[in-house]
Amino acid sequence: MEIIKKTAYLLLVLLCVSFLSFFLANISPIDPAEAYARRISRSAGTELIAQYKKITGFDKTLPEQYWSWIKRAARLDFGVSYITKKDIRTELRKALPATLTVAVCAAVFIIVFSVPLGITAALNNGRFVDRLIGFFSFVSFSVPGYFAGLLCLRYFGMHLHWFPVIGHGHIVSVLFAAFVLALPMIGMLTRLLRSFLLENEDKEYIQYAKARGIGSRHIMARHLLRNAAPVLLTLWGQNIGYLIAGTAITESIFSIPGIGIYALNAAINRDFPVINAYLVLTAFAFVVCNGAAEFLGAALNPLLRNRA
Q1: What would the mean pLDDT of 108-132 be, rounded to a whole number?
Q2: Using only C-alpha atoms, what is the Rg of the chain?
């Protein structure tokens, strides 16, 4: 029953996102048919604009346009790009592996960095190491991604030549892009883990373990970290959708040909079919990742499982 509810919720969210993206794109004061015709020929007249409207379907009413688009989108047929004249599904299929590579690497970086940093900060509560990690968490969570990306590009790319500034496909540039994408989540999860560990340090079962002479590091690994795992994994899973959707800036900085930069170019050129397809795809990623994280949290946490 719960799976049916989640599936219905997924379909409802996708329907709402598709409607909003389609509606907002079509209430723009700039006529996309006219903009494209002017791009082909600056002296384009009303006849050429009308011809292009007929080809693209802009001569129909908005509900007719949406119904026609949603029927094709249900079959994963998003049409062709107004700019490149290429099939959007094919282009997304080509660009998706690069984006998934960056997102998966970023997800791994989040766990690899945030868990040790959070534990170290909790074990050294109030000391210099704790304050240093707290400062790093604050900076990583506060600095915009594009700024951190440009710093990495300038220092590691232009000065140290660790990866090519122009071109794509270099593994080091992919890793730096993933690290920049993961930075805000590393800072947030580090602070959350530290707070959780310190808040639960005074619980009765922890005091009992200390009274038995068990060391603080063993208590941290055996009891506190195990109890923190459901919360951390749930938050981690919920943010994988954010990682997939947030790759546009990092992909453009590090010249990675993923769906983010593909959608960014579409937005610049007002390529509405590509924009709509990208929004539906990212909404799908958000809902699926959130649902999977929720089920994972319920499986690991008996309290959440009973509530579900």
Answers
A1: 91
A2: 24
For residue 85, being part of any structural domain is answered with: no
In whole angstroms, what is the distance from residue 228 CA to residue 196 CA? 7
Counting other chains too, the contacts that 303-308 makes at CB distance below 8 Å and 24 or more residues apart are: 304/230, 308/2
- What does the alpha-carbon distance between residue 89 and residue 80 come to, in Å, rounded to a whole number? 8
Give the structural domain span for 293.
96-307
- Output the pLDDT for position 307: 47
- Answer yes or no: do 262 and 189 share one domain: yes
Is 199 found in the same domain as 138?
A: yes
Q: Which helix (H) or strand (E) holds 60?
A: none
Dump strand ranges (E) for 90-227: none
CA atoms within a 13 Å half-sphere pointing along the CA-CB vector of 303: 3
Around Cβ 292, how many Cβ atoms within 10 Å?
16
Q: Which two tokens stand for residue 27?
A: 């209430």
Q: Same domain for 211 and 300?
A: yes
Residue 81 domain-assigned (yes or no): no
Say which residue the tokens 């195990």 belong to: 226
Q: How many domains does the chain have?
A: 2
- Co-location of 102 and 36 in the same domain: no
How much is the pTM?
0.81
Provide, rounded to the nearest whole percent, the portion of the chain with pLDDT above 70: 82
Summarised one tens digit per residue, pLDDT across range 209-264 is 667 767 666 776 666 777 777 778 878 877 887 888 788 888 888 888 999 899 98
Q: Which residue has the higher pLDDT, 84 or 33?
A: 84
Tokens describing residue 14: 């996708």
